[in-house]
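Subject: complex prediction, re-run

Hi both,

The earlier run crashed halfway through, so I resubmitted it with identical inputs.
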Amino acid sequence: MTEPSGPPIAAIAAALQQERRRIGLSLAEVARRAGIAKSTLSGLEAGTGNPSLETLWALSSALEVPFSLLVDPPRPVVQVIRAGDGPALSSESADYVATLLSASPAATRRDIYAISAQPGEPRRSDPHLPGTVEHVVLSAGRALVGPTSDPVEVTAGDYVAYPGDVPHVFEAIEPGTAAVLVSEHRA
Amino acid sequence: MTEPSGPPIAAIAAALQQERRRIGLSLAEVARRAGIAKSTLSGLEAGTGNPSLETLWALSSALEVPFSLLVDPPRPVVQVIRAGDGPALSSESADYVATLLSASPAATRRDIYAISAQPGEPRRSDPHLPGTVEHVVLSAGRALVGPTSDPVEVTAGDYVAYPGDVPHVFEAIEPGTAAVLVSEHRA
DNA sequence: CTCGATCGTTCGACTTGACGAACACTCTAC
DNA sequence: GTAGAGTGTTCGTCAAGTCGAACGATCGAG
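This time it finished cleanly. Structure:
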């Protein structure tokens, strides 16, 4: 069972209101900053509706939180995720598996990923929010990691950090390549 | 040309097509699985439009990728620490080596460690600052990790998180045990 | 108490995204 | 050659999301 639930409108509604109150802004002020009608925001916080991508993006900018915060539910403080566990939230393909281990809480803003990759098509990523920094520790194998313009070849045990707000890539060179990735956003 | 934080419609368009072709499905088939019109999907992959939350969610399910992947693309390099490099700062003992990879900036408060351990005396840690949380991803071997009162046995690939403000332990069970540890303080 | 400002909600009008059929195209089989 | 099944695209229609204004509620100053 992957995702039994529907669209996380309820979760987003809660996150919107929580983040807005955290920075102490009124509904009208956030709507103004986001460039949307406050009636729209009012409805969203009430859990009614089906916001468009632009609306959500504008709100994440106005609230000054990563977009993922609005869609990734918070996680418990203590938990165990087995290597063989069904994916709580993972991105899979034939030669690349990225499992989200720990989503960033509101205050700290960082995600931890376990990556398992096979040689094949490189995993390219578009720029993230400005201020994002990513850290990779290769557990096994060999990979080409870093900005698309200047990637670095790393082997088991190596560590590499790079800005997340430029296009970047993760390409396994050897079979059975694994890594731990920490993506953090500095406010 | 690079917008500071424009809606990632273009990125989503690329991600949609990339993921769809990765699993080798036709546009019509994905649309059918997602329960949306193929014309809608066609437009989205072309980069035109502004999809609603429900539409995106349905597509992430149909493509069997996490929702966050479509809206929050993964990661990119600035600093490289090779496995054989002499660590600038490390804590060593006969059967335990912890290398500091990335010290926590003032704002974010988190440290990333690479741990190499051998079976022997458990590595016990006294409580850190209140609000500290530690995350461990085991790269290789087998270890007993977590609160001293209730440790968890983990193997390669496993993830475990536990409060850092209580006594905790890291004990290698197999030779050649390695791990990545992220220690963070929540304000 | 009254006025004013700000809060969040509700309402009708407009804009726009989603739908589904028809379309042009490619490839294969007969 | 033609017929068929597959691909992805375009277009008119309808439903739904968004907008802006008006609404009642709340709080503080005079």
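Chain A touches chain B through 94 residues (CB under 8 Å).

- K.
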